[in-house]
Write a structure and sequence with these properties.
Elements: H1 2-17, E1 23-26, E2 38-41, E3 44-52, E4 55-63, E5 84-89, H2 110-113, H3 119-149, H4 154-157, H5 175-184, H6 193-200, E6 204-211, E7 215-222, E8 225-232, H7 237-247, E9 260-267, E10 272-279, H8 286-292, H9 297-315, E11 326-328, E12 337-339, E13 345-347, E14 354-357, E15 362-364, H10 379-382, H11 391-411, H12 436-445, H13 460-472, H14 483-496
Antiparallel strand pairs: 1-2, 3-4, 3-5, 6-7, 7-8, 8-10, 9-10, 11-14, 12-13, 14-15
Family: Belongs to the protein kinase superfamily. TKL Ser/Thr protein kinase family. TGFB receptor subfamily.
Enzyme class: transferase
GO molecular function, one term: ATP binding
Length: 501
């Protein structure tokens, strides 16, 4: 009976998930509650009654067209005498009827009642429905396990773009070929799911290069090329899914946003590893780089301009059928910005990002309990005055954090033989792991900001950087610069300083 219960649950979940325009049916699952207990499908309506612990259980759901196999006598519509009574129909709300489970009865003269059927025919009549039921149970168990691991709208992650069907992993394809395919596949949203899984499952992990609250980051090898593999713990499934989902946003790919390659969930029988594969950058994060090296004025401008370019692309909305929604990062900091080989930046870690759908004017906020990094939180986030219904509020919070990152970069600028040791923003005002209350007191109540040294005025590049920082740190978010304005100002500065990007 437990298997039957699991089967019915799975049938209900599948029936709901597969809804589409077409036939209207009654639906008794909890997921249908918001739709007035109805669903839509191009397949069939189904009413089902099962006998569980002596009690009749009634279920009404939609069955998708592709699930109606084999034609003429679909598995989903079969009944099992004494256990299950299913009825499929094909008109609106035709599954309103209450079915009864027919009890099994044995007639004393069964050979007469069956019209003289022999043992082979009787065996076929009995074994046929039982075999069909067995297949349904196996199918139900498989779906139950699959949906148990899923949450939210995982279907969106697993929809493959038909325009990328021409892409395949030939044996001689290199990592460079793969990245080229990613940039020319048309959608700008990444490789098809089957290619992602093929790549992920042929990567050889080499060494751990970082750890965080989500899990670990490894350097891996794929066909001779280095890749970065971010491995999430199973309890961080929401973060993994959200980051993979954001990275596969249409038209997100940009030279100053970390290049996404693949996402996969690898079950080794004991636990599930959640992989996110991306480009590998040997310099590591901007935080790591600034700790190791001071920078010239030229490198400071390259780092600052490329970070602004990545954030401007992230924030920008591109209209059209193949358009891109505006995206705000919500956890921008030097540890979430990577330094590429050419010493430009790539923005990473989009697990907390929010998307703005301008057509419906809705903000897609991840169902995630994580918050941003307290040290980089904007005043309106610290005092909880931010307008969560207005997308520009999130972009303004990103700009505040970008100003702090610029302060970290400019401090390490070696101008005239002078540069300072690396420090985190507010290092002299709060402890190493400050609380929100401690940050609020400094940033909101005392209105303090990181110190901008007077000697920066002696160098045009540092003077411009200092001016940009101050205009990123305004208490009023609406008064702050936009990422595009910062990008234009730094582009002009790079031309004046003859910086080669």
């Amino acid at each position: 009976m437990d298997k039957t219960r699991i089967l019915l649950v799975c049938l209900a979940v599948w029936g709901f998930a597969g809804g589409c325009d077409g036939l209207l049916c009654n639906c008794t699952t909890s997921q249908c509650e918001k739709n007035g207990y109805r669903c839509e499908t191009t397949g069939a309506c189904m009413a089902s009654t099962s006998l569980i612990d002596g009690q009749e259980q009634h279920v009404r759901i939609c069955i998708d067209k592709e699930k109606l196999v084999p034609p003429g006598q679909p598995f989903f519509c079969l009944s099992a005498e004494g256990l299950l009574n299913n009825h499929c129909c094909y008109t609106d709300y035709c599954n309103s009827l209450d079915l009864k489970v027919h009890s099994v009865t044995v007639q004393p003269n069964s050979s007469t009642m069956m019209g003289g059927w022999g043992p082979v025919e009787l065996a076929a009549v009995v074994a046929g429905p039982l075999f069909a039921l067995f297949l349904l149970v196996l199918l139900g168990l498989f779906l139950f396990q699959h949906h148990q691991r899923a949450y939210g709208h995982r279907q969106r992650l697993e929809v493959e773009d038909p325009s990328t069907e021409h892409l395949y992993l030939a044996k001689d394809k290199t990592l460079q070929d793969l990245i080229y395919d990613l940039s020319t596949s048309g959608s700008g949203s990444g490789l098809p799911l089957f290619v992602q899984r093929t790549v992920a499952r042929t990567i050889v992990l080499q060494e751990i290069i970082g750890k965080g609250r989500f899990g670990e980051v490894w350097r891996g090898k794929w066909r001779g090329g280095d890749v970065a593999v971010k491995i999430f713990s199973s309890r961080e499934e929401r973060s993994w899914f959200r980051e993979a989902e954001i990275y596969q946003t249409i038209m997100l790919r940009h030279e100053n946003i970390l290049g996404f390659i693949a996402a996969d969930n690898k079950d080794n029988g004991t636990w599930t590893q959640l992989w996110l594969v991306s480009d590998y950058h040997e310099h590591g994060s901007l935080f790591d780089y600034l700790n190791r090296y001071s920078v010239t004025i030229e490198i400071m401008i390259k780092l600052a301009l490329s970070a602004a370019s990545g954030l401007a692309h992230l924030h920008m909305e591109i209209l059209g059928t193949q358009g891109k929604p505006g995206i705000a990062h919500r956890d921008l900091k030097s540890k979430n910005i990577l330094v590429k080989k050419n010493l430009t930046c790539a923005i990473a870690d989009l697990g907390l990002a929010v998307r703005h759908e301008s057509v419906t004017d809705t903000i897609d906020i991840a169902p995630n309990q994580r918050v941003g990094t307290k040290r980089y939180m904007a005043p309106e986030v610290l005092d909880e005055s931010i307008n969560m219904c207005h997308f520009d509020s999130f972009k303004c919070a990103d700009i505040y954090a970008l100003g702090l990152v610029y302060w970290e970069i400019a401090r390490r600028c070696n101008a005239g033989g002078i540069h300072e040791e690396y420090q985190l923003p507010y290092y002299d005002l709060v402890p190493s792991d400050p609380s929100i209350e401690e940050m609020r007191k400094v940033v909101c109540d005392q209105r303090l900001r990181p110190n901008v040294p007077n000697w920066w005025q002696s160098y045009e590049a540092l003077r411009v950087m200092g001016k940009i920082m101050r205009e990123c740190w305004y208490a009023n978010g609406a008064a702050r610069l936009t990422a595009l304005r910062i990008k234009k100002t730094l582009s002009q500065l790079s031309m004046d300083e003859d910086v080669k990007m």
